[in-house]
Amino acid sequence: MFINRQNISLQRLVRPRHICVVLLFIYIILEALVLATCTTPAVSNYYLLSLTYLETQENSPISELRLRLGYFSSCVSVNGGSYSCGVNAYDMLLASSEFDSSNASCVDLYNLVIETADMFRSRCMTPYILLISVIMSFLILTMMAFISPRNYRNAYKPVFFVCYVSLSLSVIASVWQESNINTANMLFQQVLDNYYTVQAHYGDYTRGAIWAGTGIQILISLSSLMLAIMSSWTDRFVNAWDYYNTPMGSQMGPI
């Protein structure tokens, strides 16, 4: 009997909306990590686009340069050394002892990799769509976690609207990132074939994380729609019983 009472208490404590809260928490963590790519050397393995420049001339002081791009910063590795991350990739390259501004190959390296990559990040990639989606998801999480439908029977209707907007922004951010980075990959591949030895690579983590987040947003939107429909049906059912003066309406709990 004691176990049954515990099960009943647990069922009353855990509601379907709490599943949405967990999914929202996972989505916020995933997309926050995508936005934080290349901000510090600790997360240098998480990037949007990686460019590797290989110098074929023997007199060049830099034989290999690896540049990894994130939404807000970049990470640079010279000649297989450790990554240094920051907002300005050129300053990080100047800080390297191997970089010689008077060397023609170093100047070409800057013009090809650093300037082109920074231009791509600033003009083609935008983090703000994804950032707004994360902020709206945090708002949804707060609404679902702290607003009880027992006191606000129509609380799920505005939640579903915000979920729909957040899902739309997440899809736009995913398609934007996928199309722009794939285009950059093809352009740098053309450069590799015709001019320099440059290799481009799309970050596997960011691609998987942003599309996984979009899938989670779809589940959250469908769940919030079901909760809104169930809440509406419950509200009509309670009003019908109240109309016939039965006490059943006061016994209905939150869904």
What's the SSE blueprint?
Layout: H1 2-13, H2 16-35, E1 49-54, E2 64-69, E3 74-78, E4 84-86, H3 89-94, H4 104-124, H5 128-146, H6 156-194, E5 198-202, H7 204-243
Antiparallel strand pairs: 1-2, 1-5, 2-3, 3-4
Helix pairs in contact: 2-5, 2-7, 5-6, 6-7
Q: How many structurally independent domains?
A: 1
Which class best fits the helix and strand makeup? alpha+beta
Radius of gyration: 26 Å
* Unreliable sequence segments: 5-11
Strand content: 5-15%
* Share of residues in helices: 55-70%
Strand order of the largest sheet: 4-3-2-1-5
Q: What's the end-to-end separation, in Å?
A: 25 Å
What would you say this structure looks like, in words?
The protein has helices at residues 2-13, 16-35, 89-94, 104-124, 128-146, 156-194, 204-243, and strands at residues 49-54, 64-69, 74-78, 84-86, 198-202. It is 62% helix and 10% strand. The chain has one domain (14-244). Helix 5 (128-146) packs antiparallel against helix 6 (156-194). The chain is α+β, with helices and mostly antiparallel strands and 255 residues long. The chain has a five-stranded antiparallel β-sheet.
Features of the shown structure:
5-stranded antiparallel sheet; 255 residues; alpha+beta; single chain; elongated; 7 helices
Task: Report a brief summary of the structure.
By secondary structure, this protein is of the alpha+beta class.
